[in-house]
Amino acid sequence: MRASTLRRLMNLWPPYLFNSIRVLRLSDDWREARVVLKLRPWNRNYVRSQFGGNLFAMADPMYMLLAMHRLGPDYYVWDKAGEIDFIAPGRSHVYADFVMDDAAIERLRAAAAQGDKVLEWFETEIRTAAGELVAKVRKQIYVRLKPRAR
Q1: Which single residue of 10, 20, 72, 101 could bond 38 by disulfide (Cβ 3.0 to 4.6 Å)?
Q2: pLDDT at residue 132 is higher than 80
Q3: Dihedral of alpha carbons 122, 58, 95, 91, sign
Q4: Cα angle for residues 87, 79, 44 (degrees, 5° grid)
Q5: Structural domains in the chain?
Q6: What is the pTM of this model?
Q7: pLDDT in tens, 21-52
């Protein structure tokens, strides 16, 4: 699937669509993604800031998707764990950038070369358009070379 097609489909995916989460950019080479969570009356929490579950949801699948497409069909790639550290209330639209660079892909390939399972953490920050830090998100992905590819 092309990155542009997946980006459009994700923007129609109910957990994103109904919570005002949009994938703004998904690079053709699957190295980078940019996601926005728009602050709307229906996704605010009791104190009128971004709902924490939506902050986590905007980041949830991104590292897994980038790794899956960068590594290719010879690898299993799954989300394993996640953490979020809330720093400040999000009182406006917030953005997160995700990067799966060549060094990370080479590390994953090397670690999984013998068929071992690999667990690696990736981090991103969620910020307002003005650059204010709202949250830090860590996602752990599971990678393993498929038996037929060894």
Answers
A1: 20
A2: yes
A3: negative
A4: 40
A5: 3-149 (3.10.129.10)
A6: 0.93
A7: 999 999 999 999 999 999 999 999 999 999 99
